[in-house]
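[job 0412] stage=fold_complex status=start
inputs:
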Amino acid sequence: MRLYSMKFCPYAQRTRLVLAAKRIRNEVVNINLVTKPDWFFYRNPLGKVPCLEFDGKVIFESLITADYLDEVYPSPYLLNSTDPFRKAQDRILIEMFNMVHSNLYKLYRAKLDVEDSWKGPIGGIQKGLTIFEEELTKREIKFFGGENPGMVDYMIWPWMERLPTLPILSHEKFKVEMENFPNLAKWISDMKEDSAVKESHISPENHARFITGFLSGNPDGLLC
Amino acid sequence: MRLYSMKFCPYAQRTRLVLAAKRIRNEVVNINLVTKPDWFFYRNPLGKVPCLEFDGKVIFESLITADYLDEVYPSPYLLNSTDPFRKAQDRILIEMFNMVHSNLYKLYRAKLDVEDSWKGPIGGIQKGLTIFEEELTKREIKFFGGENPGMVDYMIWPWMERLPTLPILSHEKFKVEMENFPNLAKWISDMKEDSAVKESHISPENHARFITGFLSGNPDGLLC
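[job 0412] stage=fold_complex status=done
writing structure:
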């Protein structure tokens, strides 16, 4: 099992989290996404990571790789496999998280020192987080997946790990006030104790350095 | 089983195709997507169709509703359920179809009488169709799903049905030359014979009327 990845890519991190949670032996090949090697397009015509290679076969797209691994390596199951309705609900939640990460990218591209350019995306992130705060309250359990992290937990984590980059990149002008999301705040500290999460964890300072470099067109030395 | 739908919505058509293929009894409630009723947001906070309601439960997002129905009503299975790799491949194909439908929407919004504004999207559509033409050639079978239409066939069909709107909307300035895609051309005529496809079929002329109305902000009378 080989994973084509990139250290700072949140989508590739999704697959890495699933591989780690299931303790699937794998080797990681980091791809320079700025100057992609030609041979990589033979694996994935879209040239994107994550991309999984095994037995001469290739699959890509973060959610598809995660579902595949969950089906073929069911110990432990990350998506509740016995209840199709619960499975659908979890998939809907993962889709709804787009509200958080699409607005996070808008913020990265906005001028964070100009208040007008971040009001909209900030509202979107807070609206998105509210859905997850309420869902966690409703489920009355430690993780979205139950006593242990499940598919929802791992699929949203990469961007939750990146939320603390906002005060760094905006020079403390903006941060998500986690006291407004007490259950999510507790969830974040619980997730940080998970061994799969620890394996791919990168500090907010290093994420912020990468994002600054990437946006300025100069992520070299940070890519792999 | 109740489906909140809209007659001209390609995403809702995906769910309708699955319901029809599996002969699942259902009632359709068409939603006016321009002036959405308040009560609909209690079903789907995103206010989008398709949205399925059953036993006091609600699910939405076209691919999630399709997967749910496929799991709960497995006769016939639309996504190969015994081979996780084939299932992943089919899901990747469905994702890659984005290249066709995202560019179709770009064309709808472009000025179709100005050549420069359609060259890029047209190239994207042709590149996307080439992937499906080659895959069909490789699979050497009538439909992507085998002897009968499967998940890939139904999930891409709504936009394949809308491709012939292009010469109508561009006053014959542009059309996808299907002779460049002989297997797909055969597939289209086979799909048109499928009873599920027939149930939700709308003519290119009526699709074009709806799209013209929708883009001009006046789709009334065509919405439901």
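[job 0412] summary: The first strand of chain A starts at residue 2 and ends at 5.
[job 0412] exit 0
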